[in-house]
Design brief:
single chain, about 80 residues, mainly alpha
C-alpha cells in the first residue's frame, strides 16, 4: 500500500489572476472548438444520409415511371391494333 504524505515544503503551481484568465480563455477555445467540430460531424452525417435518401427516391421514381409507361404502352398497343 502506497501512502502519500503531504509536506509543507511541497511546491504547487499557484494560479495568479492572469494565469486563471488564460486558463479560462483556453478552456473556452477548447469547448468552442469541440462544439464546432461536433456541428460539422453531425452536419456531414445528416447531409450524407439525406442526400442518399433523395437519390434513392429519384431512382425509385424513375424506375416506377419507366414501368408505368411500359405497362401503359403494352396495354394501349393491344387496343390500337383492333382500332386500325
Amino acid at each position: 500500500m502506497v501512502v502519500i504524505q503531504y509536506s509543507a515544503d511541497m511546491k504547487f503551481a499557484k494560479l495568479t489572476p492572469f494565469n486563471k484568465g488564460l486558463a479560462v480563455i483556453l478552456l473556452a477555445f477548447i469547448f468552442l472548438g469541440g462544439a464546432i467540430a461536433l456541428i460539422y460531424i453531425l452536419k456531414w452525417i445528416f447531409r450524407s444520409a439525406f442526400i442518399q435518401s433523395l437519390l434513392m427516391h429519384e431512382r425509385v421514381h424513375y424506375f416506377s415511371e419507366k414501368i408505368k409507361n411500359g405497362i401503359d404502352k403494352f396495354l394501349s398497343s393491344g387496343n390500337d391494333v383492333g382500332d386500325k
